[in-house]
């Protein structure tokens, strides 16, 4: 009975952040001045609400491990009609795992946001949106039927729209949130059609009942196979847009216009995770149709590879991480398509902590860079303006390195265990999918370590660029080549006072540019007091340290090796039996077997990491190594760089063939409405006015004129009607 009551209390989990969001939003709307003075109290209330939700989630998980039960608590919503719908809660292992994921990632993000957003005028509004976002995702995972899922699905999309466009005064942020909203409309419309279709087939919206009936009807041949496949693909279209799968991924890099804490939450535990959760929730429905499963796997495979190639040469720190998220989500969808849904969920969890760590680390870097280069995303987020930040920001640098190595898939970090499972499953299912999964592992190591090297290693480059700009009337064009070289085009016009010094520095800079190295601050800027980024404060550093723990050990705790005969919880079994040497030896042998079987995938990751170190390691300019630019410059690399920087030309394709087409059709319809529809209505009105004016002038009010008109009309009618005799 106690277990039942504790499970029924699961409604408190989404309710806590929802109440906190409503209170914060209402208070800031009705009492704006009081909110500004008590905004820290508002933040504390939102954080406390998520702490309560997290605590209840852990209690329910502890109970779940003892009972292994699935429980539903339903209340009638539409009881008195032929169409009966119930709302409530579904408590099962998938729900509780996602609940822990959302709360444990959301809590560090909220703590981090207190310092990151402290100077923003929308501080309280941001926390209201953040809590509503978390509550919407928690409501989604606890939903027992498809209608309730769809409601919270739309709420998640609405919150992402509000948070991506949080700084709506910037045109780029306004355009980004509109792009995300419109792109997700495509997927959500497909999802709505799929929901109607699956209800027409099964007659129910309950998830478990729906999947069972769909399986029974398709197995018996009672449903047209083409119609069933169409309905399943329409359902899959929702996760394609929500989880940024090809070709509806174009909104994800632009979503980086929002504040960095929300970027971490979107990419780790809320919006993009909703699509993977939905696939896992109705996986039984998809698994009955091989065509649909094949489509899902190949969409995931294409997304995995394309996301990795698009991240190869990105200059924006957050956009590079965004394309990385796209690629890793492709891994999860690929795993779901080949039947490895548990591996997909495992990778969702390990990737969530690693990516949250990386995004919060990037926010720490951006927050510190803004004090040096100003509040311009083109500079504060440009990795070529950074370098050497590990010396200035050691905690951020170390934690960012931990997240990088985890994303690279190196043991013993979290993402290694989950990614290795997916690669193994891919090889056993399809040769081509195995090649894609393995090749992407090498590309992932290359671009993630590239981001780390350009950001944290070498010398700090922003001061060098800013210093040279002060010597000229116009700023010099300083372009650091995406593949490791440098191009410096200095203007020839100087003032009389600094002509000699700048000319000398120009010769030295061009000489270094020919060597393919970046000038060190000691070469030209000695004797000048330059600004350098500083380590972030405790409220921003603490979440990084906390998230680094599951990034290090999360894979060991959750490793799923049932297929190989291992336990579900390798690390806990190891710790429990630590006093028994034979048991420790047994677990050690199992661990070694896993590591040995993963040698091919780890080798590819090390190759990608080594190439990245070779190309970008010269940014440590103490020895002025001759690297890169000219030696690696060839047609293939230029094409790959242009492909990455131009986003695979997919945005251009959409702009030409979709945006312009829709705009042209809209203009045509507008002209038709203006000249034909409105023309007919306006013409009718003008004719009535003209006729009325004509009659008004004819009506003078004199009886003599009326009598004269009557006589003339009578005579005319008699003349017309009088028969004329024929001529003789």
Give me a quick take on this structure:
By secondary structure, the chain is mainly alpha-helical. Among the domains are: 318-471 and 532-562 and 591-618, no CATH class; 652-719.
Explain this structure to me?
This protein is mainly alpha-helical and 728 residues long. It has 32 helices and four strands. It has helices spanning 2-8, 12-30, 32-37, 39-67, 93-116, 123-141, 146-164, 171-202, 207-220, 225-242, 251-254, 260-268, 271-281, 283-286, 290-310, 317-337, 341-373, 377-380, 389-392, 394-408, 414-429, 431-456, 462-469, 499-514, 521-524, 538-558, 570-576, 581-597, 599-616, 635-645, 650-698, 703-721; strands at 71-78, 85-91, 477-480, 486-489. A two-stranded antiparallel ribbon has the order 1-2. Mean pLDDT is 81; it is low at 1-5, 467-528, 560-581 and 620-632. NDH is composed of at least 16 different subunits, 5 of which are encoded in the nucleus.
The strands making up the biggest β-sheet line up spatially as 1-2
- Unreliably modeled segments: 1-5, 467-528, 560-581, 620-632
Total DSSP E strands: 4
Helix count? 32
Strand content: under 5%
Backbone structural class: mainly alpha
Shape: globular
| Rg measurement, Å | 33 Å
The span between the termini is 121 Å
The description of the largest β-sheet is: 2 strands, antiparallel
